[in-house]
Every structure is written in C-alpha cells, then in structure tokens.
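Researcher: I'd like a candidate sequence for this fold, 357 residues long. If you have to choose between options at a position, lean toward the conservative one.
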C-alpha cells in the first residue's frame, strides 16, 4: 500500500509499504478516508524526530521510519473476533491515543491520556492516517453519527483538544475568553468556547492573514495583532469593569503569548496552557500571585470525549469544517500540504489529505 513516512527532518517519502496483517481479536482494520496535517506533524517534518521514537517505544515497540497522521477517520474493513462495537462498513473516527489499559496508575483511574507509556497512532505506532489502511486497537476506533461527514471525522481529534482546553479553563455561559494563536487549534478553541457559552471572544495572532481567516470562520470575534495593539490593554478596555477576561487560553507555545494571557486575564481568572513550549518560559510570578490567578496545563484530551465532540460537530455547535482551507491527495501531500503550511505567509489553516484521490 502507499504511505507517507517520516524518515528524518525534511525527509518525508511516499512509499510502497507492506499492508497491515489481519487484525488480532481486539483489533480493527480501517480503510482511511481523510487525514489532517497537524502542527505536530509539521514540527516532526521541520525539526524531528521529536515524538517519533529513535529507539523502540517502551509500550508499542514502534520507531522510525514512521507513517504519519493522527487526525483521521475511515471505514471499517475487517474486525477481530472479539470486537463488537463496530462492524465492516461502519464509518469511524480514530481516537489515536494508545496506552496500557490496566496496571498503570493513570489507566486504572480512567486517565488514559496521562499514562507515562502513552503512544499515538501516526507518531509511535506501526500505523497512521497518511496511508491507505491502518490497523488499530478496538478502543481507538469510534463509530460516528450519520450527520457527521467523512471529512469531519478527521476533525474530531483536534476539536477534542480544543474542547478539553475550554473544560480545563472552566469556560461557561457569559464568559469573556482570550485565545492566543489563530491557527487551527486556536480557532477551534474559540469555537469550543462559544459552544460552552462564552459571550465575548478575543483572538490574537501576529499574522494578519490568519486573523482574517479566523474572522471568516468565527464571525463575531475581536482580533488583535500584538505588533500593533497591546493585547492586555485592548481586553481591559473592552471587558466589563475594565478588569480583563475571565479565561485566557494559550495555543501557540510562545513565551510572549503566555505573558499576554497572564496580563490580560482578570484577578482570579484562569490561564490554560495548551501550546507546547520548546523550552523554559519565564513569567512575572509576582503578578501571578498578586492577581490570584490559576495557571493550568491542558494535555491532549480524555479518551471518552469522542462521542461528545462528534455530537458538537454534527450539531453545528462547533463548525469545525470551517478551518479546512484545502484538500490534497497523498501523492501531493508534502509539497502541496506540509510545505504550504510551513509558509510564513500563513495562507492555509487545516489541510486534509483525501486518501481516495
């Protein structure tokens, strides 16, 4: 079968590889339909290996070359003897987190996403979404409602990240929310905040093109370019009592964006760190203490979110498909997908690979 595999930084190859074998009793073989190119995939391409193991993963045994793709869905082809929740022909979305199901401190408490042995399909597992088919564990394969399109099935994973970030921030009806970063995750976080009841949305980014795309996707949102406006000043001027926003969610992994969040949030507000920072990030900890704010991390998502997120998308409460700006075939995914998304001009948000083309 054809697959896009990561070999090293700037070395992605479309290759003919051996198709997965028949599923074990607790596994499912899926014919992939659409797969999103994620920021994590872009970082692997530009700077990796980062998450792709150089030596066998302690739980899965996987290591490079790696078939990429962890935002995907498809149609069930074959199920193992013990699988009963899906059958051949079912349309599904892939929940890509792979980890021990028991005998692990966090797994035993249902917090599978926090397992120290966590792996991901498309990064540290033998299969991924950027291939014709994928072999997955039964718990990775989630049926989707009829109202959800095949394209939207590939958007559940990034939307789950966004919904969890809002949950970590405690976003609720009437809140004012700042999101830093107008990339796919930032825009999805803003959509998720609105679905949770936020009545006032602010979105900051250094790229005016992306801010324009965000306005098209979101409608009513106050966009801010930190190059021309001070984020905290804008938000204090436009929030009730001029005190700042209730929740600020950092979706860049950037020192200045996090500082803007801490500055813009009101006293006893909440800052959620969603973007992955490459190194240490100094904050003004006097202000953190003086303002009595909470700073919370948000890592991935609980695996049980899939049906909830699917409903939010299918109902239109989170119109996730608005972040898709382009479709490409697998054969053109590197030049027309990865390279386009790394363009500093930022002309695209989410690019989906159509595995049927």
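Model: Candidate sequence:
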């Amino acid at each position: 079968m054809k697959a896009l595999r990561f070999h090293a930084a700037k070395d992605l190859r479309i290759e003919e590889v051996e198709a997965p074998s028949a599923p074990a009793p607790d596994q499912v073989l899926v014919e992939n339909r659409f797969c999103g190119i994620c920021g994590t995939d872009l970082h692997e391409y530009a700077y990796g290996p980062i998450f792709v193991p150089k030596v066998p993963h302690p739980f899965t045994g996987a290591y490079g070359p790696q078939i990429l793709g962890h935002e995907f869905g498809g149609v069930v082809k074959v199920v193992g003897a013990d699988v009963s929740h899906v059958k051949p022909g079912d349309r599904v979305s892939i929940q890509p987190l792979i980890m021990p199901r028991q005998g692990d401190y966090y797994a035993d408490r249902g917090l599978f996403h926090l397992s120290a042995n966590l792996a991901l399909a498309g990064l540290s597992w033998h299969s991924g979404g950027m291939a014709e088919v994928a072999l997955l564990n039964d718990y990775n394969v989630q049926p989707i409602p009829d109202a959800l399109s095949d394209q939207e099935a590939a958007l559940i994973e990034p939307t789950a990240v966004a919904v969890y970030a809002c949950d970590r921030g405690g976003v609720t009806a009437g809140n004012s929310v700042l999101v830093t970063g107008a990339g796919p995750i930032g825009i999805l976080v803003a959509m998720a905040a609105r679905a949770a009841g936020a009545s006032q949305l602010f979105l900051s980014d250094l790229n005016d093109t992306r801010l324009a795309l965000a306005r098209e996707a979101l409608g009513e949102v106050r966009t801010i370019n930190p190059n021309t406006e001070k984020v905290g000043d804008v938000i204090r001027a436009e929030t009730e009592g001029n005190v700042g926003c209730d929740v600020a969610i950092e979706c860049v992994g950037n020192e200045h964006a996090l500082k803007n969040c801490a500055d813009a949030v009101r006293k006893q507000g909440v800052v959620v760190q969603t973007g992955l920072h490459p190194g240490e990030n100094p904050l003004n900890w006097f202000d953190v203490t003086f303002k009595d704010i909470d700073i919370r991390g948000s890592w991935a998502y609980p695996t049980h979110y899939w049906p909830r997120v699917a409903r939010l998308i299918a109902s239109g409460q989170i119109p996730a498909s608005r972040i898709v700006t382009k479709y490409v075939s697998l054969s053109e995914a590197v030049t027309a997908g990865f390279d386009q998304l790394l363009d500093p001009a930022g002309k695209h948000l989410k690019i989906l690979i159509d595995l049927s083309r």
